[in-house]
Design a protein that fits this description.
CATH class of the largest domain: Alpha Beta
Order of helices and strands: HEEEHHHEHEHEHEHEEEHEEHEEEH
Number of helices: 11
Distance between the termini: 41 Å
CATH superfamily of the largest domain: Type I PLP-dependent aspartate aminotransferase-like (Major domain)
Low-confidence stretches: none
Mean pLDDT: 97
Strand content: 15-25%
Helix content: 25-40%
Shape: globular
Number of strands: 15
Largest sheet: 7 strands, mixed
Strand order of the largest sheet: 4-10-9-8-7-5-6
Bound molecules: pyridoxal-5'-phosphate
């Protein structure tokens, strides 16, 4: 499966078209499919559709298959575990893979100031990891309010949805939301909410929290947690200036508010560090992880300082959470990540980012290229001065990339994102950048 892209049929091909027609009749229409890719198999950073067309995958099943599609060590761990037992429920019984994974998390999660005194709760998804974090923060502090950020995505179940403020379609029709959630502007430096420049600012955007929210709306001693993505994912791969996270951390410490890092999309090596928070020189109190942790099997983990996770038996649990097969996949994933893949994300990510930045000279539609590791966002604008959002053009770029054999996803209103399996090679990064160049040439902005 090395030679990709390789497009042999019109897209979708006949087999893909037939499956999509069946899907349309019987599958929930709430899913967001941007183009008609129907998976047949995958290996590393290459995927093949049911008609034999091959693509370089820069979406990784929404930033999930970090170790590459069907990494042999992960598959082996899954098969070995599956042959022993598939399920026993860590809620009512014990099994070693869950314990081992909790021990691994204690060693790698940036809470508890490096002491390793960390406990983990296991669910099945990102939203469950966030739900658990919110419930734990409320339980541990005996406070009930939460501060989250505009543009953030934390999941779609009713607790996490109250914090999500990415797109209104995700909230429309589902209200009223869980009370006690307040939203503040995120450090969207390309479009600074207070009109400053990241090189010289002091994270003045947090003034909204300090001088408005905590003065006029909610008393700090009733705020359980601040919930934040270290780098905003669905919101557009937005990387804050480091001072934003540092000032936020100081603020939470001052008021005894817990800091929950939502590392669901940023975590597990994607940014070139195990956790994105590590780039900003701070730690958190609770960390939510999912997506990349088990290379594609469902798993969500909420890790916290042990002294916080003191809820009693029955307070929170999940029948499937921490399933032994997912736990075995996660243990293999962590081994592989440490074994060089995180470093590859850093090196190839830097390379891909430099190739994409170089396109700014040729394509005025590229307003901003940002990211860390293999989490790269490219914001498209109609005019670099006004920063008018190139929304329809963005959608055409996503389609154009697909037609030429590269899977990408949009992020935010007018950005494209690159979140490939972290085994992406430099050659594949070159191919991707060349195709971006071709597609941007086709999608010229109106003068
Ligand atoms: C930062 C973040 N948090 C939470 C979630 C929710 O994860 P899931 O879709 O597994 O529930 C996502 C999903 O995109 C995410 O990006």
């Amino acid at each position: 499966m090395r030679d990709a892209p390789d497009i042999k049929t019109p897209l979708p091909g006949p087999k893909a078209a037939a499956i999509i027609a069946r899907d349309r009749a019987r599958v929930s229409p709430s899913y967001t499919r941007d183009y008609p890719f129907v998976m047949a198999r995958g290996e590393g950073a290459v995927v093949e559709d049911v008609d034999g067309n091959r693509f370089i995958d820069c979406a990784a099943g929404i930033a999930v298959t970090g170790t590459g599609h069907s990494h042999p060590d992960v598959v082996k761990a899954i098969v070995e575990q599956a042959q022993k037992y598939l399920h026993m429920s860590g809620t009512d019984f014990y099994y070693e893979p869950q314990v081992q994974l909790a021990e691994e998390m204690a060693a790698i999660v940036p809470v508890a100031k490096g002491t390793g005194d960390v406990r983990s709760f296991f669910g099945n998804s990102g939203t469950e990891a966030v739900e658990a974090a919110l419930k734990l923060a409320r339980y541990a502090t005996k406070r009930f309010n939460v501060i989250a950020f505009l543009g953030s995505f934390h999941g779609r179940t009713l607790g996490s949805l109250a914090a999500t403020s990415s797109k209104v379609v995700q909230r429309k029709g589902f209200g009223p939301m869980m009370p006690g959630v307040y939203h503040a502007p995120y450090a969207t430096c390309y479009r600074c909410p207070v009109g400053l420049r990241p090189e010289t600012c002091q994270a003045e955007c947090l003034g909204f929290v300090e001088d408005q929210l905590l003065i006029h709306l909610v008393s700090p001693d009733e705020v359980a947690a601040v919930l934040v993505e270290p780098i905003q994912g669905e919101g557009g791969y937005v990387v804050p200036a480091p001072q934003f996270h540092q000032r936020l951390r100081a603020l939470t410490e001052k008021h005894g508010i817990l800091l929950i890092a939502d590392e669901v999309q940023t975590g597990m090596g994607r940014t070139g560090r195990m956790f994105a928070f590590e780039h900003f020189g701070i730690d958190a109190d609770i960390v939510a992880v999912a997506k990349g942790i088990a290379s594609g099997l469902p798993l969500g983990v909420t890790s916290a300082r042990s002294e916080l996770m003191t809820w009693p038996p029955g307070a929170h649990a999940s029948t499937f959470g921490g399933n032994p097969v997912s736990a075995a996949a996660a243990l293999a994933t962590i081994r592989i990540l440490k074994d060089g893949i995180i470093r590859n994300a850093e090196v190839v990510g830097e390379y891909l980012m430099s190739r994409l930045r170089a396109l700014m000279d040729k394509h005025p539609i590229v307003g901003d290229v940002r990211g860390k590791g293999l989490m790269i966002g490219v914001e498209l604008v109609r005019d670099r001065t006004t920063k008018e959002r190139a929304t329809t053009e963005r959608d055409r770029v996503v389609q154009g990339m697909f037609k030429k054999g590269v899977l990408i996803l949009g992020a935010g209103r007018n950005a494209i994102r690159f979140a490939p399996p972290m085994v992406l090679t430099k050659d594949q990064a070159d191919t991707v950048a060349t195709i971006v160049d071709q597609v941007l040439t086709e999608v010229r902005t109106p003068a």
